[in-house]
Amino acid sequence: MWRYVAGGVAALLLATAGILLFNSRARPPSPVAARPQAAVAQETPLPDAAPEATDRTREQKRFDRYDKDRNGSVTREEYLAQRRKAYAKLDVNHDGVLSFDEWAVKAETKFAAADKDKSGAMNASEFATTAVKRKTRIGCPPAAAQKDEDS
After folding, report:
1. Which UniProt keywords apply (predicted)?
2. What one-character DSSP code corresponds to residue 85?
3. What is the rounded distance in angstroms from the CA atom of residue 103 to the CA atom of residue 90?
4. CB count, 10 Å around CB of 67?
5. Where are the domains of the chain?
6. Does residue 45 have a pLDDT over 60?
7. Which of 34, 49, 68, 82 is 20 to 30 A from residue 23's alpha carbon, by CA?
8. Which of 108 and 24 is assigned the larger pLDDT?
9. What's the pLDDT at 41?
10. Which DSSP letter does residue 96 get?
11. How far from 13 is each of 18, 22, 25, 94, CA to CA, in Å?
């Protein structure tokens, strides 16, 4: 009986040693690579204070886009103007009534443009092209340019 216990303990010790050995080799290199001392010495020091944010917030800028007459208030007509433009684009026959077919034209057009191989179904890469394109902030350098500066 003691042989089975000793064999089980030995097997557990071997398995533990194997796991530890495997994990020590599988560790990825540190994401923070050591830089030479000369590069660290040439960097400019950080400013004492954080830069101030602009007075105009994102919501204020959005408000200003709707407030066409710049009187400090958004009227019902100013608010609905954007909706009317979008509705007019969808109302193809201009009868003031949006049918399902008129509403679905945009979705069908988007699907047809994404389905490059015209198979009637989108694969993962084709589907990825249908994602809503987000606007980027003006003044932010592209990620590639930031990496070049860091090097």
Report:
1. Kinase, Transferase
2. H
3. 6
4. 15
5. 56-90, 92-132
6. yes
7. 34
8. 108
9. 54
10. S
11. 9, 14, 19, 79
